[in-house]
Design goal:
It is built from 13 helices and no strands. It is mainly α. The chain is elongated. The chain starts with 15 loop residues before the first helix and ends with a helix.
């Protein structure tokens, strides 16, 4: 029932059809199974719509979408850029609910961050990494190299997300206090305001660890 009301299925170029479907499913979660079925179809437009609906639902109720995380993970190497970015966005939102799954997928996230042509895909790969790091010491240690890579790769374009990830996980990385403070102080001198602010936030997070 819901699949035929998705934007691509009603000939709509905007997201309004998908937003209506997402709102309907938030009120009637049993219909999420149809979106799950849609995530294994071959039509790229339909896949993109279903992944976008997952993102819209996860923004309001990530618990509903968490069971679909494995389906979304399989779409991260789809040839359609939109399918990849919507899937990565939805996964970033549900990462705290499926930390084991995302931790196992760290090599996949790194490949995407290094090689994907989509800035949006790379954005949400690092946001997912930061969300994973916030979950505990083991996760923070496992994802540390990827967050560190985000500071420098692609001309510091994603440094803000890397710094944000370190801020979220600072309490789990007490042994790395000196290194993280050095990173924060370095990026405090960065010319981009968003990166400068993220560095300030990291310093504040680290200062809270002081006795």
């Amino acid at each position: 029932m819901v699949l035929r009301n998705l934007s691509s299925q009603i000939g709509q170029r905007s997201e309004q059809g998908n937003r209506r479907v997402a709102a309907f499913i938030l009120e009637n979660p049993e219909f999420l199974n149809e979106i799950k079925d849609g995530l294994i179809q071959k039509n790229a437009d339909l896949l993109g719509d279903c992944a976008e609906v997952c993102t819209m639902i996860a923004e309001k109720n990530p618990e509903l979408v968490a069971p679909l995380a494995e389906n979304l993970l399989t779409l991260l190497h789809h040839k359609s850029t939109r399918v990849r970015w919507e899937s990565m966005h939805a996964l970033a939102l549900v990462t705290p609910l499926v930390p084991e799954l995302i931790q196992d997928a760290i090599p996949q996230l790194e490949i995407l961050f290094r090689n994907d042509k989509s800035t949006i895909v790379r954005d949400y790969a690092i946001i997912a990494a930061g969300n994973l790091a916030s979950m505990g010491p083991a996760q923070a240690k496992a994802i540390y190299p990827l967050l560190n890579l985000a500071l420098t790769l692609h001309d510091t374009k994603f440094a803000k997300h890397g710094l944000d990830g370190f801020s979220k996980s600072a309490k789990h990385l007490k042994d790395d206090y000196d290194e993280l403070m050095g990173i924060a102080e370095l990026y405090l001198r960065h010319g981009r305001p968003s990166i400068h602010q993220a560095a300030k936030n990291l310093i504040k997070a680290l200062q809270k660890l002081q006795p």
